Structures are given as structure tokens and as C-alpha cells.
Amino acid sequence: MRGPASPGWLLVVLCAATGAYCLLRMRSSVEEQRRAAGGEALMAFGMAAMAVPAAVPAPPRWAWLAYTAVFGAAAVRALWVARTSPHHVHHLVGACAMVYMAEVMATAPGHHSHGGSGVPLLTGALLLYFTGYVLRSGLRLLPMGSVAGGAGTVGWADRPELSQACRLSMGIAMLAMLVTL
After folding, report:
1. pTM of the full predicted structure?
2. Taking Cα atoms as reference points, which of 74, 72, 179, 101 lies closest to residue 134?
């Protein structure tokens, strides 16, 4: 990604830590949570790899094509699963955004291929979507009344507030990556 190295490395660490927590969530006793966590882990580690600052030598073109293939396959899977699970519509948009960013990076030396001025339409649409997603995710973290107690001890893999915080940080990371296009 283009931009200063320090924020780029912080973005890499944030995405990698989010991916690691998503792997931990795959140990959940709830099947839907395990399934969602796998897709989110793929997304987080892919974002970490894409966010490596420009100070590091750029990967070869085939690496970006590999990202396109992996996230294209993830988009097809999310499209299939989205038939029954609305949460996977977001996974579909995220995977398509990753395909888009990989294509932009594959076609442009220095990761900046948009001719003309202004923000390309697709980048702008993705920025709007992820801004809304981040705001919605942030609101979901706010306490809304009293929480029913006595549910017993919840393991780290089943903490809804942590998984929501991970989704929020991945949304913020996606915004940061899209802005650098």
C-alpha cells in the first residue's frame, strides 16, 4: 500500500492480530460462528499481506493475480452461502473489494493506476459501503441497556463483543486500504 511506513506496519499488525483471533474463534462450539470466523481470518490475513508498506519491495505481478484468484474463490463461496445467511453478503462485498484492490495493484506500478482526477466510481462506492459498515459496527459495540447475567463463563472463541470489535477493525483497515488506492 502507498503511504507512510509506520501506519502501514500498524495496519499489518492490526490485520494479522485480527486474523489470529478469527482463527481462535474457529474453535467455537457454534457452527455458524466457526464458518464466519474462517472467512474473516482469510480476509484479515489477506489484508495484512496487502497492507505491507511500499518501503518493502513490491510483490511480483503473479502474487497479485494469486490474490485475485483466492479472493475471487472466496467471493464465489460467499455468494453461495449468502443465499441462506445475510452476514455473508458482507463477506461477498469484502472479497470483491479485495479482488478489486489486487487488480489495481497488479496493473499499476506504484499501486496508482487510476487515470484522470478524482476517486474512481467503484472505489467511491466501496468507501461509502465500508464507512457505513464501520459506523454500524461501532454502534453495535455501544452498551444497550443491561446485560442478562448468569449465562456462565464464555470462552474466548465465543465472545460476541470481541468478534464485533474484530469486524470493526477489519472495516477500518479496509477503509484505510481503499483510501490509498
Report:
1. 0.80
2. 179
